[in-house]
Amino acid sequence: MEISVTVDGARYVDNVEPRMLLVHYLREVAGKTGTPIGCDTSNCGACTVLMDGVSVKSCSVLAVQANGASITTIEGLANGEWHPLQRAFHEQHALQCGYCTPGMIIAAADLLRDNPHPSEQEIRAGLEGNLCRCTGYENIVRAVQRAAEEGGTS
Amino acid sequence: MTAPAQAPQTAELGRARPRKEDARLVTGQTNWTDNIVLPGMLHMAFLRSPHAHARITSVDVSAARQRPGVIAAFSGADFADEQGSLPCAWPVTEDIVIPDHPPMATDEVRYVGEAVAVVVARDRYAAADAVEAIEVDYEPLPPVLDIRTALDEGAPKVHEAGNKSFVWPFANGDIDAAFRDAPVVLERTYRQQRLIPSAMEPRAVVASCVGGEFTLWSATQIPHVLRVMLALVTGIPEQNIRVIAPDVGGGFGSKLQVTAEEVLAVLVARRLGRPVKWTESRSEGNMTVHHGRDQWQRIKIAADSDGRIRGLDVDLLADMGAYLMLVTPGVPLLGAFMFNAIYKMDAYRFNCTGVFTTKMPTDAYRGAGRPEATFAIERIMDDLAAELGMDPLELRARNWIRHEEFPYTTISTLVYDSGNYEAATEKAKELFGYDELRREQAERNARGGRDEHGDPVRLGLGVSTFTEMCGLAPSRVLGQLAYGAGGWEHAAIRMLPTGKVEVVTGSSAHGQGHETAWSQIVADQLGVPFEDIRVLHGDTQVAPKGMDTYGSRSLAVGGLALVSACDKVVDKARVIAAGMLEASADDLEWSQGRFSVRGDPDASKTIQEIALATFAAHNLPDGVEPSLDSDATYDPDNFSFPHGTHLCATEVDTETGMVKIRSYVAVDDVGKVVNPLIVEGQVHGGIAQGIGQALYEEAVYDEAGNLLTTTLADYLVPSAADVPSYVTSRTESPSDNRLGVKGVGEAGTIASTPAVVNAIIDALRPLGVTDVTMPCTPERVWRAIQTAQKNGSAS
């Protein structure tokens, strides 16, 4: 099936199998390997991307469902300079191995879009669908708080 | 032992530097193994055993070979002559049973998930489809699932030689005398449930074979060990194997392994003459990444009526799973030296039996043996305190090694070089508000276990005053323990003509932040800017020598290797600087990257100037080689012994069994700290993993030996909503090495599990509850309360 998808500002037109997952399309067809895969049951959130501005787990979306959509991955989040969340994750040491980081940052961006000034508990609840095995989440929460203080949704 | 040399007083040591490695990680410019694409690359998919135990009577891959996109399909028999046996590098006793472990099963399968056949196809979808077409006939055999009955006479056998792999005993002091007439003797049995390490990056492998030279990219913690082992297993000459660990997304011990998939990727690439890739799914990984823990611990303690410990007697049953993998039998032995923990006692006896079952093999998981031991001793110390009507911290203070007693030789014969348990505990109590919380607890108990709203929520305070042996390890000690390799680490420094520095380390990072911390160490040692240093690691061609990363060894061993290598650079530079300054080398003073002539501060040369002069080599002193490059291999004299006091307050709803962690304080003593950001991050993550064991995580097999927890929906890795905010702090008793460092990778995990469970029991002890089996789910907590009340044991 032919699909047309805008990924991080560039338009891609490809023929894909109807069963192909969006995350496999991004990684293996579009070459956007910044979005990793952490599980096969949509529990870990590592593959989270923005689809038309809303976060989705790209392992739970078929590539064909993204036809006509605009996808933002971690690779397209920076706009000349790092997104405030990218900066905050770096400065607050909110990542160690970094495997969950793309999904975590994208999910946090969506959280701040919904709720620009979340409490600690709201951040924890908002990121419940994104697992990290390294940080114990403490610094992730701090980083999201920091980005929120800086008004950092864009 | 000699006194530690004074650490250099410069800007970098102790500085909270954000990490160099973050730039690629926060922007998605990473190089995970699964990102790698090679020309002509094929994809592998495995057919895995659906039986816990069965004889394979036939495997037919012919239909799979006919599927579109499929290039080849193989059974174990197709590789029988070349696949060898997966290695066990730690034959802990002379009579240990180490069964043959073919990467792909040939005659018999012994756990669900064991590889039986492999399809190689043009894309991963085609490979997965074709696996369905493979026909295998199995003759089921009885599973062996419970190590408590696996050694019974008549029990079904996992291997022909039986279900016992080894018995490993240790004893010091007169244990019978310690227990004879002891005023207090307690005996407990604790369960260390089976855990799945759950690194966020699934395992992945890419292998290529060009002209007899092999390159293996793998999501591994151990590229160097893997290279040696691949050579030994497959017979491929070691010099023809290059192993690369690109960006690796966490390990926690699970990637300290030589896996079937790595060996088979190499063999398939050779057979087909094309590169191959395999990336596991999470479900596949939960079944086939080695598991952790899984022990039954019988622990017996004898004490005087004032709480002084007389003796400790430990009997472990450790589940090996179906085979012995890289360090499977050694894991419980790392715990053998840790049951006595920070306490003085007259006698100690330890006995460990390694038992085979038809389950995934166990092996190193964060802490490896030490969390298990720490859990058991810290749990029974709390019970002993309750038995004596004593505060649990008071009991510990009566038994721990006092700070003025270091260095101290423990009953398990380790020499603890430094520590200050009093200081860490005092600080933790203060941050926690220990005395106030005890008062609140007493008030609640006086109200019948109700909180200020009248809800049936009890408050419990959990204590864990832990230590661990890390910085693995002095090679001679590893030799005494029959480990197959040494415990040294290698480092090299290359001074570039422009004055920049390349640091090569044999310690292979997978999230720890070596690129940053190593830059800080070298910046201090050589007096060059942090930004001018690049750290290279994780590729046996770039960093040809190393022992890799596990056992909180990177800094305590690898960091010290860096210091030694820097010393050699400075020594070489001194001779060349003397020539440049026309002074005697003895008259030169080295400080902050500069040699100055004593008494003539204007006469000086920086290390960068010396590097350029060395590169040009026009005017070097006679006989001096034109190079500052140096390397060093450091073998530690001793382990290092981080310690700390972790305190946890839980609110336990006695009607629902729900446990909420109200506050968590961790005061850790990891010696000198290179980067406080990194240290704090390690502690946070470690605590969360320990909380996971205490409250959420368990690998569950059903009675047929099927793993039920194959997904992250069933195996509950904690989310941000499941863990509390942590208060962390440090005390600092420097270790007896040149940086004064200890290691921090495992401390949080070792400490937190008993702190949490002790807090739950402390809340419920007035109801007569003395134990809850981990993970302490609401149902288990609720049932423990019901059982205690039915037994009428409430006090």
Say which CATH homologous superfamily of the largest domain in chain B is assigned: Aldehyde oxidase/xanthine dehydrogenase, molybdopterin binding domain
- Radius of gyration of chain B using CA atoms only: 28 Å
- Helix and strand content put the structural class of chain B at alpha+beta
CATH architecture classification of the largest domain in chain B: 2-Layer Sandwich
Helical percent range of chain A? 25-40%
Number of helices of chain A: 5
End-to-end C-alpha gap of chain A: 34 Å
Low-confidence stretches of chain B are 1-9
Into which percent range does the helicity of residues of chain B fall?
Answer: 25-40%
In total, the number of domains of chain B comes to 3
Distance between the termini of chain B: 51 Å
Overview of the molecule:
The complex is a heterodimer of chains A (154) and B (795). Chain A has 154 residues and is an alpha+beta fold. Chain A folds into two domains: 2-75, Ubiquitin-like (UB roll) (Roll); 84-149, DNA polymerase, domain 1. Chain A contains five helices and five strands; from the N terminus they run ββαβββαααα. Chain A has helices at residues 22-29, 84-91, 101-114, 120-126, 138-149; strands at residues 2-7, 10-15, 48-51, 54-57, 70-72. In chain A, strands 2-1-5-3-4 form a five-stranded mixed β-sheet, sandwiched between helices. In chain A, helix 2 (84-91) crosses helix 5 (138-149). Chain A starts with a strand and ends in a 5-residue tail after the last helix. The model of chain A has no long low-confidence stretch (mean pLDDT 96). Chain B has 795 residues and is α+β, with helices and mostly antiparallel strands. Chain B has three domains: 22-29 and 488-634, 2-Layer Sandwich (Aldehyde Oxidoreductase, domain 4), CATH 3.30.365.10; 33-141 and 202-248 and 255-288, Aldehyde Oxidoreductase, domain 3, CATH 3.90.1170.50; 292-472 and 638-790, Aldehyde Oxidoreductase, domain 4, CATH 3.30.365. In chain B, the strands form seven sheets. Chain B has a seven-stranded mixed β-sheet, sandwiched between helices. In chain B, helix 15 packs across helix 16 (607-616) and helix 17 (676-696) packs across helix 18 (747-764). Chain B starts with 21 loop residues before the first helix and ends in a 5-residue tail after the last helix. At the A-B interface, helix 1, helix 2, helix 3, helix 4 and helix 5 of A face helix 1 and helix 17 of B.
